[in-house]
Write a structure and sequence with these properties.
- The chain contains 2 helices and 10 strands; from the N terminus they run H-E-E-H-E-E-E-E-E-E-E-E.
- It has one domain: Immunoglobulin-like, CATH 2.60.40.10.
- By secondary structure, it is of the alpha+beta class.
- The chain has helices spanning about 10-35, 45-50; strands at about 40, 45, 55-60, 65-70, 75-85, 85-90, 105-110, 120-130, 135, 145.
- The radius of gyration is 26 Å and the shape is elongated.
């Protein structure tokens, strides 16, 4: 009758510690799988990119790029992918871009001649703002291509 074991208090503490560690591992694993997405107009901001519609034109003679938002979602910013022979670069259009974004029916024009010298194509890629005030760059497929 001289058997010894761990006391019930120590066994309970060890069990609780093991459950907490396993729970933490599962939580961190699950958080890595589920990606947090912003929302806009009650939809995932990725889905709103399909609703963005805008017209753009570029005049070789004046170097003026004109953009008009014809869709419902406001365009917070605009990225410009400049394609040259064998390379490309991406710049954000700044200038007089409205601070709160280009609302429906809004227009923007800017001289970009110095930024695109030697380019043969530019692609305008919209940037949206989610409800959480996070900028989201739409995929290039939602962009507007202009041959120069």
């Amino acid at each position: 009758m001289n058997k010894r074991g761990i006391s019930p208090v120590i066994a309970t503490v060890l069990l609780i510690a093991m459950v907490i560690v396993i729970g933490l591992i599962v939580f961190l694993w699950f958080r890595g799988i589920v990606q947090e997405e912003g929302t806009k107009f009650g939809k995932n901001v990725k889905l709103v990119c399909a609703d963005v519609k805008f017209d753009a034109s570029y005049s070789d003679s004046t170097g003026i790029l004109s953009i008009v938002n014809t869709g419902r979602p406001p365009i917070y910013r605009m990225k410009m992918k400049i394609s040259k022979e064998g390379s490309h670069s991406t710049k954000e259009i700044e200038g007089d871009w409205p601070a709160l974004g280009l609302n429906q029916g809004g227009a923007f024009s800017e001289n970009i001649n110095s930024e695109i010298s030697g380019a043969n194509k530019i692609t305008l890629i919209p940037v949206l703002m989610s409800k959480e005030k996070k900028a989201y760059i739409c995929e290039e497929q939602y962009g507007y291509k202009i041959e120069i």
